[in-house]
Structures are given as structure tokens and as C-alpha cells.
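hiii, so i know i said id send this last week but things got crazy w the move. better late than never?? heres the sequnce for the chain we talked about at the cafe, plus the structure i predicted for it. fair warning i was half asleep when i ran it
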Amino acid sequence: MSSPYILRRALLGLVLTLLTFSVSAQTINSAAWVRLPGQAIEIAASEQGEAAAIDSSNNVWRWDKKSEKWRSLPGKFSHIDITDNGQLWGVSIDGQVLNYQNRQWTSIGTGASNLTLGRNNDLVVATNTGSLARYLINERRWEAIDGSAKDLEVAKDGWIWTISNKGIISRQLGDRWIGLPGRAKDISIDESGRILIVTPSGKLKQWDPQINDWITIKLPFSAQTIESSSSNTLWATNQQGIIFVKGLALGEEAIKPKEPANKRSTGNPSQTVDDSEYKFSLVQGTGLDLSIGLDGSIFSLQSAGQLGRWSNTDSKFNDFPGDLDQIELDWNGRPWGVGRGGALYRHDGEAWRDIKINLDIEDISIGADKRVLVLGKNRNVYELTPPYTSYTRLRGSGVQIATVPDKKSYWLLDNRARIFQCTHKKGCSRMPLSAIDIEVGPGGTVLIVDSKNILRRFNPSNNNFDIVKAQGIPLNGKYGRVAIGPNDRPWVVDTLGKIYASDFFNRDESQDKSLAHLTRRTEKVTNGDGGSGIVILSSIKFTSSVVPTSATGFPNLGHGLMDLTSGYQDVLLTTGFSSNCTPGTGRSWVYDADSRDFNFIAELENANFPVIINAEFNTLADDVPALAAPLRAIYGIFPQNCKNYQLIEFDFNVFTAGNFAIQDFDAAVLIDFFKGTQNLETDLDTSEDGWIVWTDRQGDMGFHHPISRGFFTLKDNGLTFKRIAIGADLDTVWAVDTNNNVYQLIDATSVQQQKLSSRAPLYIGNGNTARQYIAVLRSNLSSDRALDVGVGFDNTVWTVDLDGRLKKWDPSNEIFTAYNKDGITRVAVNAKGKPIVANFPSSRRVYFGR
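okay and structure toks below
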């Protein structure tokens, strides 16, 4: 994809990282292949030594000839090319043809899949339909070209050479296309007219016009891509995407192993230190403060507390919903913050959540080691413990804190701008100078803005702060705030609020605007402590249908509807009874998803308590049934004068939810539940692989599988359960006890390893095949106590809290997230994890989450 005038190119398949690789070149001789830092899937290069690359995440990097390092550029691209004067052209991942000038990309068209530069810097483009087109730059217009290609280059004579999807090589000759021998996965043509290909097996070959065939060029590696930038210089990648160059004049620093300063590299790419000189450039937007996450996310804090999120694609800060006094990003690039009045919030990827902690927060710092440290309004230091509702007091006091990623250290500034270096065990030591801001990078670099607005870096060799020499310093020469991102590269804010970047951190921005939109849509201003004005709810849309609680020939429900359940193949049943102690008064309805109506099932009048639906299982094996397996049975709980309760299996040969027809119906008692002394509520559910679980009248859990026909009861001393739910299998059991606390059954070995619980294990099964589980309390917060719990076959967990609010379990953050549905008492979950809720028995309406 180069031409006589432009040279770029094609590397399909690599991963460019800004780490410096630990490789040693045997020689710097221009005749040898030299390994460069990074990996890539596409490379373009010019005769003057300019180069650009695309990594496996479609980020763009540019080779800095002076520093001999890769520098990131904004945008997400699939292909790139470069002119002889270093101007970049590319195809974005959404098919736009873009030109990079004045630090931003400008689109000239869409619908492209690849491009190359031709004569007069005209573009030749392979479209997303495989056809060819040329963009005449001087005339600013497109023209169609006969032919098709997946990859393409323009030769010195102006004719196009192509590679098809199947690797077939062709060249243009007048108005004809000529097929050539061999197969290729990449092609490059330089200004001398040399034409190179990489074969599917990774061999490098050059076209010999004398014999009209390809001749092999020996390589010390198996190639993936090739780029010939001149008759003397080649760029290539191997099968793993590692970048090599031959014939490029390089200094020792470009290829020798790099030892991070002060051994600050942790082995994590985002925590590798780039100690090269900072070159600051002014970016669009203003702010009071910044925070940068490990993934390269950048948030700004505005004067009125509003937030902005940096977009490499848009080259500006886009609005992000929220109102904070302090902003900090965690290890996932998600924002946390301190609201008015000292309330603590975190964004969980859907919306802002209020962290209910008995502290008024002054400042927060989150380290690359995932430690969350805060300063209270009392200026004491605390380390928060997941799920961040409890804390441990640490040594020292101050008004600003910065976490060191070593799990033991941190820095403080006090109210007199004094600097302190602290450890958990040794306490805090006063350091030289005074500062108005301090930040620690993921690789351990410590930067301060001193009291004279000078940027300084901590030097552990002399235990002091050296002045940072940088290019492009703030126009007024005064630094105000500093934030540090991946590779320990900083952004700064000057005292006028202008923002400067020393590097751009490429990341996937495709969901940023959607997340901002979702956060804005779910925003709900609260008047709680501090009047935070922060989003605390997530949103979900619902449709609804009313259950007709009457049927011809049957008495109306006296007590109303009591429960609902979503079983195998998402068949939804609702149940109730006229009299909970009178046999034969149970009522059940099945939902028809086509007509969106509930229909009465007369055959289930014996089930006075929840009913569930199960599938047909192989009686000789415990395989999970295929989704097309027929429905096998409905299970229900049947009372006998409020003394004995029975688990009944209603067998049938045919059950059609749409027609509400049951054929060859039969019922059998599986097990008796005795009233005992508790007289508790009972509940029932079924897993995707066929397990039936229930809570009995004494608050114990019961388990049964149609194949083994065995019955197992779990008794936990001190716990009695009233609601139960199960997802895909036995490892997804959740239950609500009689105190409304929510528990999850977890494998006993895992629990003991994680020290989640001191409870004795519960056993399911017999003998050597018995499995041990422990009931683990999932939240200590009284606000998370629940009336009901439901689990989908995808293991999504929903609850209804004591205020009738719908909540969802967030396993990554281990918290319950409130949703925009209240006034309910029951929840079921379909196979896709969507909630189905109702306010039984007060209402007959059932709501279906979308």
C-alpha cells in the first residue's frame, strides 16, 4: 500500500503496546533485522523513516524518530497509510476514510475496508463490498475503478496490485486484470518499484519481472506482514505481531533492554514506566482537576462539580452526568467521587451508586493495586474494605492522599501543604518542600505541584523532588494540578484551568456515549445526606399483563395471587389459593407470550402453593436437557389441613403453553413436609439442569433431582429460610432467611479459601459424592434485606427489598443495585436474566422486564 511517493503498510495481526521489550539485538548494523518495542496488526512507513502502526485493539501509534518510541494517537482504525511527508490516512473500524492533520482526524468518506496511496497522493480504496474506488485529492471527488480487492498497493507505474479474500494475487494492466502465481496475505511496493508479498505460510517473496514469478527472500522469522519503505529499509512483523525493522538507522536506546527507573515496572503493561521527556500539548477544554484510570480513561472536574470524559476520537471532553467535589478513577477506569457533604459514590458501569459508609469523606485515592484509601472530614486516613462499607484506620492525617501501588504505602499533604511519605507499619515521615497537589502513577512515579506551581518528580536516590523539565509547559508557566495515566505519563491543569497532555492513551471508546446516555436517563436527584445530586438508580423498561383471577366453574381467589415462577423454556406460571389449608383450592395460570395473556390451568387445582415447571430428563443420565426437550412435569406444594404438606409431581405427556392443554395428566406425592414447630412459608424452584429446590415448613432447604430420585435436606443451625431460588445448577442457589437476609450457597472449599464465612458446611448428596456448601451472607446492609429472590438460568440474581424495591446483584462489585421498580413483593427471572415482578396479593398485574 505504498507507492513511489508514499510508503506504508500492511501488517495484519499484532498488538502494539508501549512497553519496552526485553530484547537484545546482536548488531545495530543496517543489514540486520532489529526487533523494536511493541506488537501490531498493521504498519505503514515512509522513505523518510516515518511510521505508524495499529495494535490488536485497533489503536493507532506513531513512531517518534527523535525519541525512537511509539506515541499514541486518537481513534480506532483497521488500516493505515502514510505519505512521504508523514501525513497519515486511515480506515476507521466503522469504515470511514480519515486524514490526520492538526492533531485531529477529518473524514472524507465512508464505506471503506482498506486503502493505499497512489500517484499524487491520490487514495485508492477497497470498499466494504470489495469494489475499488479512487479519491482524487486535488479535485476532492471519488471515481469508480473496475476490480475488487481485500488488500491493495499501487506500483511505480500507477497500476494497482491486489490480494483477494482467498489470497489470489492480481495486477492491473490497462483495462485488464492479470492473475499472478502464488498466494499472499500481505503486499508492499516501494518507490524503487520493488514488490514484496508475504505468503500464507509466512515466507517473504519478491516479484522478478524477468521470470514473471516470485523469488524467496530469507527471513530469520515467519512473517505476518511486510512494509517496504525504501529500497534499503524493510518493516515486518512475525506471526506473534512482534515488530522488526531492517535498514533503519537506530540508536542504542531503541533496541537495548530497558530497565525502568527505580525498578518501578510491575509486569503489568499499564504499570510500565516511560521516563522519556514530557512533551505537553494543549487540549480542548478546561477544568479544576483530572483523574486517569489504568485503562486510559480520563475524567475532568469542572468548576460547578460537573464531569467531563475525554474522547480521543472527538479530541475533547464530552459531558458525563454527575455532580461531585472530588473525582477518582478505579482499576477498571470507572469513576468514584466525593459528593457534597462528604458522601461517597462509585459508578458501577450502569449508574452512580451511593456507598453507605459511616464516614464523611474529604478525599479519595484508588491505587493500581486496587486499594481504596480515603481521608475523613476529621483528616484521618482509612482503608476501605470491599464492598467498601467498612474501613480500617491507618496512620497519619491530611487533606489530600495519594496511594502507592505496593499495598503498603501512601503519600499525604496536610492543611499546611506539608508532604508526608507513609507506610502502614512505620507511620509517616516529613519530606522536603511543600505542595498543593500530589499524584502517584500506576508504575510508582510520584509527581507534585509545589507551592510555587512548579512540577516536580520524586527522586528516591536523594529523597527529594527534582524539577521536571518538559516541552510545551503551560502558557502561563504555572502548574495547578497533575494526574498520571498508563506508563506514568501525566496530564496537567494550569492555574487558569487549561489542560495539557503529555500522551494520549488509546482505549475502546465505543460504549462511552452510550454509558453517559444511560447514566443520564437513570439519573435521580436525592435529598439524602449532603443532597448529593448523584444517580442512585438503574433503569429498565417493563411491559405488563393482568392475571384474570377467576375461571368458569371455579370459585374466585379468596386470598389473591401469591407467587410466580419462570421455569424451563421460560414458561411462566402464577399461583394462588382460596384457602391455604383447604385441599383443592389452589389456582394456577400460565402466560401465553404470543397473545400476552394469562390462561387458567384447571388441572393444577391441587397445588395451593408455588408451582414450577421442569423438562424431560434422561432417566439413565444426568445430562442437561436440550432446549428443544419436551416439558415433563409441574411440581407443586399441597396442604393437608395445615398439618402435613406434600411435594407433588404432576406428570403429563403433552403441555403446550400456547394452547394451555395438558394431556395424560397424573399426579404423585414425592415427599411430605410436616408442620413442625415453625409453620413457615414454603417456596419452590427448579434449575436448568433439573434440580428441584424448596424451603419447608421448618425453614430447611430441600433438594431433589428427577433422575436420582433422592431427597436431601440442608439444616443450618441458626438459619431458617423462607424463600429460595436456583439458576443453572446447584452452584447457583440463593435464599432469603426469616430475618430477610439474603444468602448464597457457595462451594465450601472456595468459601474457606476466601474466608467468607465461619459457618459449618452443608451437604447435598450421600457418601463420597456428597457436595459441601456454605450459606454466605451477601450484604450486611439492612437496606438489602429482601422479601424475595429470583435467579435466571444465566445466573442473574434479582431481589425485592423490604421497601418493595427491585434490586440486582452485581457480582463484580459484590453489591445490590437498586432499579426503577418499586411497590412489588415477588420476582421471577427468565432464562435471559430479565426480571418478572408483581405486587401479590394486592395486585393482579405482572410486569415483564425488557
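btw The longest strand covers residues 69-82. thought thatd interest u
miss u guys!!
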